[in-house]
Structure formats: structure tokens, C-alpha cells
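Issue 218. Parser rejects a valid record. Input:
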Amino acid sequence: MFLTKHIAAFGKYLDLMGRVFSVPERMRMFLKQYFKEMEQLGVDSIGIVLLISFFIGAVICIQIKLNIQSPWMPAFTTGYTTREIMVLEFSSSIMCLILAGKVGSNIASEIGTMRVTQQIDALEIMGINSASFLILPKIMGLMTMIPFLVIFSIASGFIGAYATAFAGIITPDDLTIGLLHSFNAWFIWMSIIKSIAFAFIIASVSSFYGYNVQGGSFDVGKASTNAVVSSSMIILFADIFLTQLLS
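Output the parser choked on:
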């Protein structure tokens, strides 16, 4: 019963995505919604991305210096480890988990409210492909903005690390040497590729839960919670697969 339920839900998800990825009926309207979603889902998330990344970069640097670094290790170990954590995992995977809570719940509640207030039914009556009209701009908008959020997150994390350096935790020179030591540009691209996949998961899964809401306002809140939980779990599983594939 449990397996059958999830297989049926996955089938409904694939059916919805088939309707979503169709040629927009009105390209001008699609572009208008696309830029709007880029602002709402991407630009409006820059603040929280910068804030969290700054403090995480600072905390990682402090923890490594105080609890891991020893006289037997090179002085640049703290900077090197901070860079690897920020680039390989935090700025792509963990940041997308955070965005799943902010952006995913927003998408699910917005579309779910339109469903329970019969706005989606009105679009269908007018002959509009509501799935493509509502969901495609959100998916494309978030996938477009997520690489910039990753770059901002990495940069903000490094600034946080330098803030601890200037506070006397580590010398700025040792931190700089560590951040530059054995740098591999592919890790940046790997982080961006992973984040684009996670952005698709967040937008599509959240839209699926919102689009299929049945009931009233209580069910919208429930769908929003389910969207965040499901997209977060899928991101964690996808992270394992993509890390193995891209490494």
C-alpha cells in the first residue's frame, strides 16, 4: 500500500512535468512571469544566503582552528578546509536545503492557494495550460538564479572567514594561503551543477504539492510542509548520486 501510493504520486508528478514542459502559448507572458519569478525566488533570497553563509564561514574557520588544527599540521590547514567545505557542500547542498524551506514553502502555498480558490480552474476554463503557465516560470527562474546564489554564498563564507582572521583567530596570510592551496576550479562548477539540479527539485516538487492540493486553507499548509520535507529528502539522495557522478 505504501509503495503503491508513492508510485502513483510519482506517476502524477511525471504527468504534471509533461504538461509543464510544453512550448509557452504566449512567449511574452512567459517572459514576464519568468523575470518576476527570478526576482521573487532568486533576488529576494540573496539576503538570507549572504547572512547565513557569512556566519557559517566564520564558524567553520573558528571550529577548525580551535579544535582540529595542531602544531603538526601546516598553518594553512584551516583556510584550506574552510574552502573545501564551503565550495563542495555548504554553498550547494546545505544552502539548497535552506532554500527548500524558504522558496519551496512559498511556491507550494502560492499555487495551493490558487487551487483552493479555484483560480487554476478558471485558467483551465479559459483554455490556458495552467501547469505550464504557473510552474514553468518558477522552475526556470530558480534554476537561472541558483548559480549566482552559490557564488554569493561562497564569497560570503570567505568574507566570514576573513572576519575571524582579522579578529585574531588566524592570520590573514595563512588563511589566504589555505584558500588558494591546490585550488581546483572544477569544484566550483560541480557545486553549480549540483545546485541547478537541486533548484529543479525544489521548484518542481513544491509546485507538484501545491498544484494537487485538495480541500481548504488547512490543506494548503499541509501541502507546504510536505513540499519542504519531500524536496529536502530528495535533495539529500540526489546529493549522494551527483557527488559520486561528478567527482
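Fixed in the parser; the record now loads. Residues 60 and 82 are 6 Å apart (CA to CA).
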